Amino acid sequence: MTINKKTIDGGWLARPCPEVASELIGCTLVRRLADGQIIRGAIVETEAYQEGDPACHGSRRRTPSNEAMFGPPGTIYVYLIYGMYNCLNISSDRADFASGVLIRALQLEKIPPGLEEKAKQGDRLAAGPGKLCLALQIDRSLNGQQLTVNETLWLEHRTPEFQQSLDNGENTIIQTTRIGISLGKDLPWRWYLANCPAVSRKGDKGDKRT
DNA sequence: ATCGTGATACAC
DNA sequence: TGTATCACGATT
After folding, report:
1. Other CB atoms within 10 Å distance of the CB of residue A190
2. Does at least one atom of strand C sit less than 7 Å from the CB of A80?
3. Buried-most residue among A19, A126, A154, A172 (CB within 10 A)?
4. Gap from A65 CA to C2 C1', Å
């Protein structure tokens, strides 16, 4: 088989989720549909959740619905929120410890199949975790599966060009508090790319550069 | 600010 | 058995 050094593996994800979440900014999420069509987008917004954090779905009890958060790094956790939207997380750290990264927004490379009518939303077709799953046709049927290159879903490392844009200050990653939660509001575990139109929401004044 | 929508966890 | 809650998004 061909080794693809661009692909992110479980080893890279086997670290505390805040570290993984911040470094996933600029990486590419790739989805392959059943008919072989490929949808690609750069990750521009993430949040970290882990055991001990009251906002984490795995912070109370291990149940069938949050089981994937306890899976080995690279396990896909998809849950239904408010009865109509799916949200995608990638489990991190280690098995039997609830930990993962919520992928909140993508800068898509092109209009995904089925969304041609919504093309006027342009850069904002995957601006938010629910919209992202709609755009990539991700639902709970993926829950509990592993990321697998060239199959349904996988991740690729930052390109050298993107890394360079961070190093020379052309691009900036902002760290701030998470969105849409009632507990654990104070933890600064959200990251997004500054000045990116595909980010779900702009931050507050107090947001920090990293 | 409000509302749609449904699974789930936990109370009783 | 009921019911409060929810890592959202569109609309006003």
Report:
1. 24
2. no
3. A126
4. 21
- Closest nucleotide C1' to the C-alpha of A103: C7
**pLDDT (tens digit, 9 = 90+) per residue, A150-181?**
999 999 999 999 999 999 999 999 999 999 99
In CATH terms, the fold of domain A10-197 is 3-methyladenine DNA Glycosylase; Chain A (3.10.300)
Q: For strand C, is any atom closer than 7 Å to the CB of A200?
A: yes
At A179, is the secondary structure helix, strand, or coil?
coil
A129 touches strand C (CB under 7 A): yes
Which residues are registered as beta bridge partners of A42?
Answer: A28, A107
**CA-CA distance, A60 to A113, in Å (whole number)?**
39
The pTM (predicted TM-score) of the whole model is: 0.95
Tokens standing for residue A115: 């969304």
How, if at all, do strands A99-108 and A38-50 pair? antiparallel
